[in-house]
Design brief:
By secondary structure, the protein is mostly helical. The protein is built from 9 helices and 2 strands; from the N terminus they run E-E-H-H-H-H-H-H-H-H-H. A two-stranded antiparallel ribbon has the order 1-2. Helix 4 runs antiparallel to helix 5.
Length: 194
């Protein structure tokens, strides 16, 4: 199945974002026109939609998904909308279902990996991103996967992952104990001088 979502470069050739391909009739017919406009706005700026608009968009996408449950791109769009609405657990379930539905889809693995990355589940995010990179069909998809993988490597190197703050906490503990020892030594020296 071809991707119904494409990666496009913004006019300034800097921003890369995902948009529905207008040429794909099935997806265009599945999503109401107002929801398509809201998706376009959401892709340009995730914070632009008001709470009521996000609720309406999610409702429309759920309806479209119910009508066409095997269209994995609808799962991805719904997962992204749920993320924007901070419904993380629901987004995880929708994207996990999409991975099961179509395990050979670049976009599904990339977006699932991105959500895991944002949740600081770096090992699993890295695995999903790697799977996505192996499925990349063009240079832009490869670049997106490469950038996400680089971000994950940086996060893992710096210990920024769920449960990964142990290194920072242990350094802080050592610093505080060293400070406490130095203060104790100074107090003993002051007492012995008196």
């Amino acid at each position: 199945m071809t991707n119904l979502l494409s990666v496009q470069k913004h006019h300034d050739d800097e921003e890369i974002f995902l948009t529905p391909q207008p040429s794909h009739i099935a997806l265009s017919n599945a999503i109401p026109q107002k929801a398509q406009q809201q998706l376009g706005r959401m892709f340009r700026d995730p914070y632009i939609l008001e709470k009521e608009e996000r609720t309406e968009l999610i409702s429309d996408l759920r309806g479209a998904m119910a009508a066409s449950p095997n269209t994995v791109e609808l799962h991805v769009l719904l997962g992204m909308a749920l993320c924007v609405d901070l419904q993380v657990q629901d987004a995880m379930e929708v994207l996990r279902e999409a991975v099961i539905l179509e395990p050979d889809n670049f976009l599904v693995h990339l977006k699932y990996g991105e959500l895991l990355m944002r949740l600081r589940v770096c090992e699993q995010a890295s695995d999903e991103t790697r799977k996505g990179s192996l499925l990349a069909a063009n240079p832009i998809q490869s670049e997106l996967a490469r950038r996400q993988a680089a971000t994950l490597r940086t996060m893992m190197r710096e210990g920024i992952e769920r449960g990964g703050y142990g290194g920072v906490l242990s350094r802080l503990t050592r610093l505080l104990s060293r400070r406490h020892r130095n203060n104790s030594t100074n107090e003993i020296a002051v007492v012995s001088q008196q």
